[in-house]
What does this fold into?
Amino acid sequence: MIVVLKPHTPTGGIDRVIREIERLGYKPHPVCGDIQTIVAAIGDETTHGSLETLTAWPEVESVMRVQKRYKLVTREGDRPDTTITVRGQKIGAGQPLCLMAGPCSVESETQLMTTAEAVKKAGATILRGGAFKPRTSPYEFQGLGEKGLKLLSKARDEFGLSIITELLSEADTDLVAEHADILQIGARNSQNFQLLIRAAKTGKPVLLKRGLSMRIEEWLLAAEYLLASGNPNVFLCERGIRTFETYTRNTLDLSAVAIAKKETHLPVIVDPSQGCGRADLVIEMCKGAIAMGADGLLVEVHPNPSQAWSDGQQQLDVSLFNELVRVISPFTQAAGRPQTT
Amino acid sequence: MIVVLKPHTPTGGIDRVIREIERLGYKPHPVCGDIQTIVAAIGDETTHGSLETLTAWPEVESVMRVQKRYKLVTREGDRPDTTITVRGQKIGAGQPLCLMAGPCSVESETQLMTTAEAVKKAGATILRGGAFKPRTSPYEFQGLGEKGLKLLSKARDEFGLSIITELLSEADTDLVAEHADILQIGARNSQNFQLLIRAAKTGKPVLLKRGLSMRIEEWLLAAEYLLASGNPNVFLCERGIRTFETYTRNTLDLSAVAIAKKETHLPVIVDPSQGCGRADLVIEMCKGAIAMGADGLLVEVHPNPSQAWSDGQQQLDVSLFNELVRVISPFTQAAGRPQTT
Amino acid sequence: MIVVLKPHTPTGGIDRVIREIERLGYKPHPVCGDIQTIVAAIGDETTHGSLETLTAWPEVESVMRVQKRYKLVTREGDRPDTTITVRGQKIGAGQPLCLMAGPCSVESETQLMTTAEAVKKAGATILRGGAFKPRTSPYEFQGLGEKGLKLLSKARDEFGLSIITELLSEADTDLVAEHADILQIGARNSQNFQLLIRAAKTGKPVLLKRGLSMRIEEWLLAAEYLLASGNPNVFLCERGIRTFETYTRNTLDLSAVAIAKKETHLPVIVDPSQGCGRADLVIEMCKGAIAMGADGLLVEVHPNPSQAWSDGQQQLDVSLFNELVRVISPFTQAAGRPQTT
Amino acid sequence: MIVVLKPHTPTGGIDRVIREIERLGYKPHPVCGDIQTIVAAIGDETTHGSLETLTAWPEVESVMRVQKRYKLVTREGDRPDTTITVRGQKIGAGQPLCLMAGPCSVESETQLMTTAEAVKKAGATILRGGAFKPRTSPYEFQGLGEKGLKLLSKARDEFGLSIITELLSEADTDLVAEHADILQIGARNSQNFQLLIRAAKTGKPVLLKRGLSMRIEEWLLAAEYLLASGNPNVFLCERGIRTFETYTRNTLDLSAVAIAKKETHLPVIVDPSQGCGRADLVIEMCKGAIAMGADGLLVEVHPNPSQAWSDGQQQLDVSLFNELVRVISPFTQAAGRPQTT
It folds into this structure.
């Protein structure tokens, strides 16, 4: 770490800071400029106590980290890309683009099976569907719960699709893990570390959505919680961040795809439906996501979006989803990730 | 709700939308302009299905809500201000400013008791201290857990202070409620609705921090979850939002205090320590908070901030806390909220 | 517009609002719900005085716009895509991707000519280079001024490249227009309306960068100033918005490309260099931009970025620019916008 | 500056970076950690070329500034607070709170004189009023121009109020300076450096509004442009920043007041009208601003806000302004800044 002292700090003050840096287990290297002294503190920042508390000292202007804070998710040390196998399908770098699709919420057997059949036919291999729904208002539909999970399992049996569904509550972990092939952690729970740890320990692959105002470093550190809990099978999922823009529900940050691929060895999925909150932009967002290097897409599809029980405005109907699969094809080719048909 | 149709939508399309509005249980009132038609849909938006799904219709440009989405936290209907009684102390509108103070994390018996004695002497009535700590990195100190809770209970017995501490995990709810007088829900869990419901059901007062990128409406709807779960004793706590600014850790949004007081009947607390993340700004922030109408302050105090195990840079030492209490006094007077001494 | 009255507004208050709406030239249509009355006000919102002032009335809760505020940039009314011809080259929908490239600042004849030759050879048709530089600090290099402009003219003569350069000051308008083929309005001046009007009146095509915190509607309204001043040849340029993220200098908002193409008939250019502020991400950003429908790219290229006088960290060297042109080729093909070689 | 090298950079690469740092005029001090080497570069960062270009080097992970970039606005070096005298009235630290009030736009002689008389009577000493208005849409009222300026001059003559009005265009500088006692630079022009320089050179005091998404450092550097152009009489004005919140038009960042007072010697003014965009919050915002240390307030007042030609929703009527002056009185007392009556 670098400890920057205030301009014109007297020698006594500099010494005091240096001794404290030593006391905290770092090796201090002071460098005196004309105006300011800085002290480079050598030591492993991930194991020692943080020097950031020194910011509270009267002599100290600021403390800057040097080392990256994540150790397991980093690409450093030439780690190979992680490929995650879900019911026989390999997902990750070098693999064909993975299509995850399905309704925002599981609403009924008919709704789910219709959708499952359609997305399977269009080329999706993983079925999404929320059984437990986090809703901004307590008066909105909260999901079918266990009944929804059972319908998802049924759809898997019937159509051979893998299942991804959201885990909302620590208390439901075993139940959800029993029915899901991938556990989804939603944006609102992206720093609910207890839930992350519980999810990781099921051994199931976990898809970690980026929180609404999560810096990329924080997102990767949340993923670090999953890996540090013994689960290497983590998908990062960009789903839009909160900005000042009001045209879209969120601002889909496609640069995060390139950055996550550059910084980590984990597969990256893009959720364009949450990402923009408008069905009429989803297809364009998918093209961009593929070009930026996404390993998969998570798309909301509903047989009749205008009658959906949640987020109808962002769900594609079956014919639009078919169009999506068609028009992204040149881009998956260009990206060297063609889907096998 | 207001459904805005696209310019020049033909009559057939307008009729189709009107019929769907009826089907969803609303009474449609179309108003035809020269360019665009809008349909006002009469009905209770909090009980019917949402018309927002209509946004997915080709005829529809946008759907606007009219009614507010919160029913219990609102001041509408001339509800009186909520006063919350914590171990005999009344907190809320018309009451003296409530001072909650203590260390970021409980670290040891000596650290906690020293702080408790000091903040009590300075005028605080509630002791804060984290036993379970949500940390961005898995490699940071995660709190003493149950041991920390027991130390908090001991401090209450010894100094007659009430205890506020954070609840992080559904699984710990009973344990934390056993030791705490107020359950704190942190910013990262502000939309962890399962945790909110569990916390509410303990019957203990709950302090709900605003999430880093929570709109005020979302914050009030999260509070609505608490009230809808049967717990009327909810403190709203502003603790800084995430913006583009880097000088401070967060941007303390003091306007949120005035807005929350105007929109709701709940007491509002300000956390200036998290809010700016710099000890050298805390006192000024407290003055502003009081002037804006805050009912209480939640301040981090540590006997030796530069050696704190977490967030040392934002904790006041005892002498600064004493100064804080002294210099805010004219402002509590000005606000008509003098502390009894 | 829609005027939403407060719940339980008495009849007298409703009447008062209705009369004011009439006085302001709108035709009021009140719709009374059980709790709230809304008044739809029919009239052309772009010519009448705004009803937003009604928000100041005690009876009024909010005022919502219905109509879009831009009339000339909109795609509504089936306007065809605008194609802009710059020294014989057509740019816009259906045309090959347009490559604009060159140094952040013009520094010297050698630097500029070397770059011009290299980017021309790689396939660029337009040379960028700042002669007047807006710099955050007054102590940073402010550009070569007129000398820089003359070097740009010389490069045009020598290499047959068109020139785009930034206009910073009303006072320099004629001078810059004399040397430039496209006038660039930078992000900091995107709502400097006097400069926009001056730029428009030169008759030269204008490239309007999106401001750091400009909503898309505001960006399009700034473009509307240009068209309303009689200049139809406007490029919209996305160059990153300001968010909470710190990994990149700005967050390149590629969704804005799709939205601008959907809402307007104007060509859209993406500046990935400013957009992320890191050379190592530029190529990926370009792929995404092309997939999202960009009509052109504006890329910073410098013969020796590490010795650039401004923004070296985001400029590509010549070999990276050559690589860029090579690797985007499959994506321009996929987007149906192949460059002719 | 601190140059952080990538982990495991070989000696040759380290040497190459060190030589470049020397070449750029800094004295390099390498400090080798187990994993990473950092190089502290000693030299005056405000005069040398920036090392930030080194970020483009393959060996370099990041470059961190140590020194502050502003030299004239800083409080460092124990500079005394700047007090600005406007037509005999001293404004700044230690002086009574300065009240600037008046309409958003000058609309007519009657409107302006009525307001001027009322705000004078209530205790304001400076009259605000826009003659040139920057408007998001070209179809909105753009101000009376020179006619408005003459009305302001007339109000000064009649009521003995000083005049503050916005300068929008370099071309109007002399004209506006002829009529104004303080030149206001609006948020949209806060980084229009050419306009800043022109304004500074008039010799009139300048009030610099913070831009919508300006970091505090950038705001202070924009002020640095004014001081570096020879004008020491600069007011900083916080007027709300752009965030994700939609309840208010902007988020008034009162913490910026405390920070600007701490970092600089300049007086700080708060504009609560723009800051929240809602008349019903202005009074509370003023209380907060005073408590945070503001030296003055800039408040929009209109004789009939609901019929204002711009921004009626945020303007106070005369009776509310009188109430404002009354209710802030205890807070100006508490802040030691009582207005003389």
Observations:
- Chain B has a mean pLDDT of 93.
- The first helix of chain B runs from residue 11 to 23.
- Residues 117 and 316 of chain B are 15 Å apart (CA to CA).
- Chain B is about 35% helix and 20% strand.
